[in-house]
Design brief:
single chain, 331 residues, alpha/beta, TIM Barrel, eight-stranded parallel beta sheet, two-stranded antiparallel sheet, 10 helices, globular
């Protein structure tokens, strides 16, 4: 039986239509660091190449772009805004807030989850993006307190009334926190980690129950699922994967893939590359097969990466038999 190929999806109860594939704009923010000098970006970038890649993605049917004010300490938003100038009505823009940073030193300086800062951050994001509204405004700190979440949900409802945003979401891996935001009328999604290496059944069930979109960060396990690291490719010194924080479990010190995760990727290679797919395209296809609510947002830094990721749309999801075989292999 042929798999249905759906190239668009809805952002939950908002009804906003997006491409089934979004593009994550963390990497195009370039180099930035925490207060201790540890890299938080994906290394050096060529802004002109980033602009070309965004425009190429749009030409290939990608209409959903996810960034954050802190990526490159404002740089990602500026590059995205420049690339989309004159085509704003063709795209859905998501950004995030909740972190403070210094643009001159390109340093993360802390976090701020007050409603006052939410407005300040939104105003600054609108300026950097060159737009009068954000389509999906997302709380970035995934572990903010529940009472803070409720206050920020109410602030987001006010932003909707003012026409500054269309919908909002929490970027969190905790279903309880996601449900706090979902109590608001204009909550449309939850952004959470999900990939063939890291399923999220509880969060996907919540999205189904509460009519939310599941926006999937790290759908390619920070590049591990592309398969290129098996050939000895390593990230550069200013790449977060070379000094991985505790949550970045797929890579070891220096950017080498963690052996146990690399072995799992290799075990899945034949299924992920079925139908002429690349391993990364197969990983995206798994997410589409996993739930009709998923919208994966892989990162990119080049036109070639944009073309490969967008190419997954034409092939659609893996089928139920393939999903079952992957579950068997991973145990």
């Amino acid at each position: 039986m042929e798999t249905t190929r759906t190239t668009t999806r809805k952002l939950g109860r908002s009804g906003i239509e997006v491409s089934a594939l979004g593009f994550g704009c963390w990497a195009i923010g370039g180099e930035w660091a925490d207060a201790g000098g540890n890299p938080l970006g994906w290394g050096k970038v060529d802004d002109e190449e980033s602009v070309r890649a965004i425009r190429r993605a749009l030409d290939l049917g990608v209409t959903f772009f996810d960034t954050a004010d802190v990526y490159g300490t404002g740089h990602s938003e500026r590059v995205l805004g420049r690339a989309l100038a004159g085509r704003r009505d063709e795209v859905v823009i998501a950004t995030k807030w909740g972190n403070r940073f210094d643009e001159t030193t390109r340093t993360l300086t802390g976090r701020d989850t007050t409603p006052q800062y939410a407005r300040e951050a939104l105003t600054a994001s609108l300026r950097r993006l060159g737009t009068d509204h954000v389509d999906l405004f997302q709380l970035h700190p995934g572990d903010a307190e529940l009472v803070e979440g409720a206050q920020l949900r109410d602030a987001c409802e006010e932003f909707v009334r003012e026409g500054l945003i269309r919908a909002y979401a929490w970027s969190t891996d905790d279903p309880e926190r996601a449900e706090v935001f979902a109590a608001g009328e204009h909550c449309a999604a939850v952004q959470h980690s999900c990939s063939v290496l890291e399923d999220a059944p509880e969060m996907l069930a919540l999205c189904e129950r509460l009519d939310l979109a599941s926006v999937n960060r790290s759908p390619l396990a920070m590049g591990l699922l592309t398969g290129k690291y098996a050939a000895g490719v390593r990230p550069g010194d200013s790449d977060i994967r070379t000094v991985p924080p505790a949550w970045l479990r797929w890579f070891g010190e220096g950017g080498a893939p963690a052996p146990e995760w690399a072995a799992r990727v290799e075990a899945l290679r034949d299924i992920l590359t079925s139908g002429g797919r690349t391993p990364g395209q197969g990983a995206l296809a798994w997410l589409w097969g996993r739930s009709p609510r998923t919208v994966p947002i892989p990162g990119f830094r080049s036109v070639a990466q944009a073309e490969e990721n967008a190419g997954a749309l034409a092939q659609g999801p893996l089928d139920e038999g393939q999903l079952a075989e992957i579950a068997r292999i991973l145990g």
